[in-house]
C-alpha cells in the first residue's frame, strides 16, 4: 500500500491529506510561493454587506467530499466543540470506516479503524491531520493546545478576505456565495475557495433563519510541494446542526484500546471489603446468571451465593448454592440451603478469589487482584452512560485470558459511577461505585458483568455462616449471663454488641470467629442473656500455607469456662452518650452447656381389636407415617455416620469449585484471570 493510500485510510486526512503528503521527489528546497495563475489574494476584497455567517461554537455536519482530480468520493461526519476543546471525524472511504478523535488538551490524536478494532495514538502537534481543525499550542504550556475556532476549522471568516459574489442555486437551494484566495506555506499550495451558505432571507434552512447552513465548498488550485500537481475538490454539506447529539464522538469506541495513550486519570483504589450483586451475561451464548459476593480481606473470607447454570453438569446440584472460602485454613464450604447439604473441600486455584502461591497452596486475592487491576495498565477513556448513569471508563488489553491461552488478545473495560452519582446514593465510597465490566475476546466471545447494590461496609462475621456444615456431634451450645441493663447497652446497637460478643469469645476460647455462630441476645430484670454455638474443627486440611491451628471443641469449652469464671470475659458496649463505651463482664459460673440430642420417634397403637372406625383408620395412617419416618431416618443416620457426619463425601474427593462453571474433573492449579 503506497503512502498516499495509507494516509487516506488510516489517518482520515480527507482532502488535506491529499495535499499534505509529500509526493515523490519532494525536497526541502525553496518554495514557489503564491501562484498567481491560480488566484491572487490581493485581488480579493472583503465585502461589507451582506454580513458573513456567524458560525456556532459547536456543530455537527455530514460532508460528501468529491476529489475530482483523483476520481473518488469519501463521506465523513465532522464534530466540533470549542468549549470542550474537542474535535472528531468519522470517515468512510473504500469500504473502510475510520474515526479520528482530536484531543489538543493532551496533544493527542486517536485514529480508530472500526473494522479491525485497532487504534493508533499520535502527537497532535506534529500529526498531519491537525490541519482538519487546526492546532494552536499554548504559550504557557507547549504540551497543551487548542483547536481553531469554528471559523478557523471551516477556513471561513477567520481573517481571510472573502468577497461576496451574489446568490446562486446549490442543490436547488438559494445560497449566498463568497469567494476567497488562500496560500498555505506549509504545503506551498495556492487555492481558490468558493463557499455557499443558505440565504436565510429567501430560504428557510432546517437550522432556522438565524443560522445559515453551509451548503457547498469548492476548492481548486495547485500544490508545489514535491511534484507539482493540480487539485479540484467539491464538498457537499448536509445535516448541519449546532448540537453534538446523544452519542460520544469525542470518546474512543467501547472495547478498543489505544496503545501509548496518556494516563489522565488513575484507576480507583479498591477497599479491603465490599459486598455486591452481579448480573453475568454471556453474550455469545445468550445466557444470564446472577451472583452475590462478599469480600473481606482482613478477615481472610470470601462468600458467593449463586445458582449453577442448569445446562452445565454440577457436582453440587443446581439449587441456589452458598460458598464460603476461609483462607485462614484454605477450606471451601459449599452449601445447598434448600436440602441442607454441605461439602468441605480445598479452595481451587482457579476460583476468582484465589491465587496460587505454588503447586499445592493458594492465598486470597488482594482487592486489586480481585478486580483484575494487576493484570494490565488501564487507560482512562472518558465518560459514557451505563444504565442512564454517567460513568468514568477505563480500558486495558490483556494477552493472558482465558487461562491456558497465552497470546490471545482481550479487552477489559471498567465503568465506575462519576462522583455526583456516588454522592446521591447516600454512601461515601473510598473505592467508587463499579457499574459494569465488559470483557471481549475475538476467539472466546464477550462477557458483561453488571454490578448492583455495591456496598463498601465491612461484611459481618455472621454473613459467613457455616453452621449447617456441622452436625450435632461436632457442635456445642453455650449460654451465660452478663450483669447489666439490656436497654442501656446492648439494645443501643444490637448488631455491634453481637459482634463484640464474638470477638470476646474468639479471644477467650482461641477459636476462629467462623466457628462462633447462632449468637442470640435476650434479657431478664437484671442481666443480659447470651447464647451461642461453638462449632468443632474442620474434618479436612486446607490448602494454604501455615493454616491457623484450631483447638478442639472440648478445649475451647474449657478455655471459655475458665475465662468466664475468672472474670476475664469482657465485652464492650455503647452507652448512648456519643461514642462513649463501657465494658461489661460475664457473670462467673453462669456458663451453661447443652448438647443436641436426637430423639427417636415412636408410636404405641391403642389396645382395641374391634373393627376399624373412621378415627382408627386415621390413626393407622398417622402410625404408618411415623413408622416410615423412623425407618427412613435410621437409614439416613447409618449413611450419615459412615460418611463422617456429612450427607456428601468430604475430604479432597471433590473438584475445586468455580462460581460460574462446574467441572467434575479435578482442576489443575494455576493462575486465573
Give an overview in words.
The chain crosses the membrane at residues 616-640. It is a single chain. This protein has 673 residues and is mainly β. The protein has 3 domains: 1-23 and 56-250, Lipoprotein localisation LolA/LolB/LppX (outer membrane lipoprotein receptor (LolB), chain A); 273-455, outer membrane lipoprotein receptor (LolB), chain A (Clam); 470-594, Alpha-Beta Plaits (2-Layer Sandwich). Helices cover 13% and strands 36% of the residues. Strands 6-5-4-3-2-1-13-12-11-10-9 form an 11-stranded antiparallel β-sheet, covered by helices on one side. Strands 19-18-17-16-15-14-26-25-24-23-22 form an 11-stranded antiparallel β-sheet. Strands 28-29-27-32 form a 4-stranded antiparallel β-sheet. A hairpin with a 2-residue loop joins strand 3 and strand 4 (96-103). The two termini are 39 Å apart.
SSE layout and pairing:
Layout: H1 3-11, H2 14-20, E1 58-67, E2 72-81, E3 86-93, E4 96-103, E5 108-113, E6 118-123, E7 136-137, E8 145-146, H3 150-154, E9 163-170, E10 173-184, E11 189-198, E12 214-223, E13 229-241, E14 273-282, E15 287-296, E16 301-306, E17 321-326, E18 331-336, E19 341-346, E20 354-356, E21 362-364, H4 367-370, E22 379-386, E23 389-398, E24 410-417, H5 419-424, E25 434-441, E26 445-455, E27 475-483, H6 494-509, E28 516-523, E29 527-535, H7 553-565, E30 570-574, E31 581-585, E32 592-594, H8 614-642
Antiparallel strand pairs: 1-2, 1-13, 2-3, 3-4, 4-5, 5-6, 7-8, 9-10, 10-11, 11-12, 12-13, 14-15, 14-26, 15-16, 16-17, 17-18, 18-19, 20-21, 22-23, 23-24, 24-25, 25-26, 27-29, 27-32, 28-29, 30-31
Amino acid at each position: 500500500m503506497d503512502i498516499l493510500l495509507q494516509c487516506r485510510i488510516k489517518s482520515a486526512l480527507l482532502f488535506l491529506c491529499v495535499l499534505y503528503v509529500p509526493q515523490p521527489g519532494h525536497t526541502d528546497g525553496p518554495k514557489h510561493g503564491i501562484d498567481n495563475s491560480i488566484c491572487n489574494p490581493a485581488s480579493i476584497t472583503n465585502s461589507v454587506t451582506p454580513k458573513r455567517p456567524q458560525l456556532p461554537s459547536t456543530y455537527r455536519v455530514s460532508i460528501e467530499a468529491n476529489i475530482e482530480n483523483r476520481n473518488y468520493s469519501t463521506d465523513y461526519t465532522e464534530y466540533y466543540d470549542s468549549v470542550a476543546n474537542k474535535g472528531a471525524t468519522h470517515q468512510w472511504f473504500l469500504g473502510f470506516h475510520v474515526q479520528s478523535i482530536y484531543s489538543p488538551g493532551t496533544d493527542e490524536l486517536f485514529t480508530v479503524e472500526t473494522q479491525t478494532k485497532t487504534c493508533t495514538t499520535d502527537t497532535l502537534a506534529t500529526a498531519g491531520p491537525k490541519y482538519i481543525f487546526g492546532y494552536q499550542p499554548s504559550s504557557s504550556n507547549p504540551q497543551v493546545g487548542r483547536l481553531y475556532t469554528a471559523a478557523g476549522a471551516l477556513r471561513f471568516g477567520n481573517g481571510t478576505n472573502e468577497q461576496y459574489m451574489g446568490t446562486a442555486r446549490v442543490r436547488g437551494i438559494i445560497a449566498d456565495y463568497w469567494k476567497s484566495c488562500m496560500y498555505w506555506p506549509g504545503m506551498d499550495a495556492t487555492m481558490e475557495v468558493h463557499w455557499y451558505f443558505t440565504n436565510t432571507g429567501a430560504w428557510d434552512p432546517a437550522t432556522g433563519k438565524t443560522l445559515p447552513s453551509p451548503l457547498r465548498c469548492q476548492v481548486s488550485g495547485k500544490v508545489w510541494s514535491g511534484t507539482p500537481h493540480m487539485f479540484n475538490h467539491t464538498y457537499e454539506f448536509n445535516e448541519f446542526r449546532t448540537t453534538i447529539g446523544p452519542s460520544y464522538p469525542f470518546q474512543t469506541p467501547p472495547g478498543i484500546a489505544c496503545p501509548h495513550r496518556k494516563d489522565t486519570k488513575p484507576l480507583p483504589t479498591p477497599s479491603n471489603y465490599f459486598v455486591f450483586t452481579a448480573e453475568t451475561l454471556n453474550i455469545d451464548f445468550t445466557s444470564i446468571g446472577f451472583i452475590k459476593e462478599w469480600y473481606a480481606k482482613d478477615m481472610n473470607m470470601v462468600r458467593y451465593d449463586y445458582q449453577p447454570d442448569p445446562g452445565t453438569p454440577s457436582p453440587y446440584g443446581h439449587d441456589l448454592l452458598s460458598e464460603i472460602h476461609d483462607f485462614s485454613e484454605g477450606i471451601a464450604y459449599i452449601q445447598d440451603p434448600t436440602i441442607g447439604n454441605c461439602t468441605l473441600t480445598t479452595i481451587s486455584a482457579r476460583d476468582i478469589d484465589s491465587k496460587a502461591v505454588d503447586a499445592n497452596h493458594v492465598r486470597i486475592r488482594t482487592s486489586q487482584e480481585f478486580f483484575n487491576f494487576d493484570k494490565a495498565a488501564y487507560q482512562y477513556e472518558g465518560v459514557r452512560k451505563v444504565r442512564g448513569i454517567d460513568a468514568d471508563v477505563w480500558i486495558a488489553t490483556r494477552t493472558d485470558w482465558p487461562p491456558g491461552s497465552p497470546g490471545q488478545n482481550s479487552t477489559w473495560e471498567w465503568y465506575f459511577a462519576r462522583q455526583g452519582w456516588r454522592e446521591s446514593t447516600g454512601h461515601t465510597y473510598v473505592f467508587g461505585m463499579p457499574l459494569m465490566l465488559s470483557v471481549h475476546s475475538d476467539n472466546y466471545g464477550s462477557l458483561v458483568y453488571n454490578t448492583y447494590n455495591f456496598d463498601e461496609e465491612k461484611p459481618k462475621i455472621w454473613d459467613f455462616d457455616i453452621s449447617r456444615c456441622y452436625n450435632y456431634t461436632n457442635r456445642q451450645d453455650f449460654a451465660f449471663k452478663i450483669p447489666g441493663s439490656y436497654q442501656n447497652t446492648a439494645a443501643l446497637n444490637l448488631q455491634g454488641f453481637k459482634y463484640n460478643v464474638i470477638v470476646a469469645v474468639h479471644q477467650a476460647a482461641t477459636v476462629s470467629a467462623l466457628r462462633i455462630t447462632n449468637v442470640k441476645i435476650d434479657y431478664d430484670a437484671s442481666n443480659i442473656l447470651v447464647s451461642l454455638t461453638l462449632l468443632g474443627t474442620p474434618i479436612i486440611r486446607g490448602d494454604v500455607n501455615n493454616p491457623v491451628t484450631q483447638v478442639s471443641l472440648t478445649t475451647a469449652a474449657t478455655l471459655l469456662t475458665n475465662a468466664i469464671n475468672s472474670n476475664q470475659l469482657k465485652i464492650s458496649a455503647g452507652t448512648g452518650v456519643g461514642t462513649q463505651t463501657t465494658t461489661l463482664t460475664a457473670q462467673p459460673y453462669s456458663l451453661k452447656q447443652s448438647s443436641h440430642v436426637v430423639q427417636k420417634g415412636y408410636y404405641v397403637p391403642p389396645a382395641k381389636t374391634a373393627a376399624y372406625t373412621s378415627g382408627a383408620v386415621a390413626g393407622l395412617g398417622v402410625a404408618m407415617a411415623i413408622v416410615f419416618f423412623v425407618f427412613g431416618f435410621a437409614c439416613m443416620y447409618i449413611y450419615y455416620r459412615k460418611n463422617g457426619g456429612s450427607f456428601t463425601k468430604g475430604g479432597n474427593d471433590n473438584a475445586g469449585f468455580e462460581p460460574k462453571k462446574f467441572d467434575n474433573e479435578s482442576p489443575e492449579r494455576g493462575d486465573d484471570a
